[in-house]
Amino acid sequence: MNPLKVITFPYIFTQEQVREINKEIRKNISEKEPLGLQATSTKVGNFFHIPCLPLTSLLHPWLKQCQAVNKKVFGYDIFWNFPVESFNYNVYDKSGEYDWHTDVTKNKVRDIKLTCLLNLSEETYGGGEFRAIGKPNENIKFTSGMGLIFNPLIAHKVTPVTKGERITLTYWGVGPSWR
Asked: Which residues form the Fe2OG dioxygenase domain (predicted)?
């Protein structure tokens, strides 16, 4: 088990499927993330909370891959409670970015154990590279239809988008508090 790995898995979804997923997500947006939620780092874009339940069958291949990678690489105790969890839908327009941050919570009952990203960009975009601490100058290949999984304690960022629109979906695998 290697907790410091960033795992990519290629092309879970075709471009046609990506468009269909985006269409369904837009129907299920429950609320926009409040401004200032991440006051400790620069976060520029539009971010929405999406309930998992209406999308689980459509996103099943990605979610199963997240579970398989967790089991093989990380081995974290995760609830995988899709009916009550939510996704974050992240839309970065030109100049959108998210500076160095981690995906940790201050919850005494449960913690984020795994960050799972799905690239849902419908068009090619410029910039918007995913970078992780330890490899801050290395672009991690993460194009439309691909998944990416990593430990939420790894500092990471999205560089400024220079052209087009970068769209991702985040699922945070939560489990009992770290011991």
From this structure: 83-175
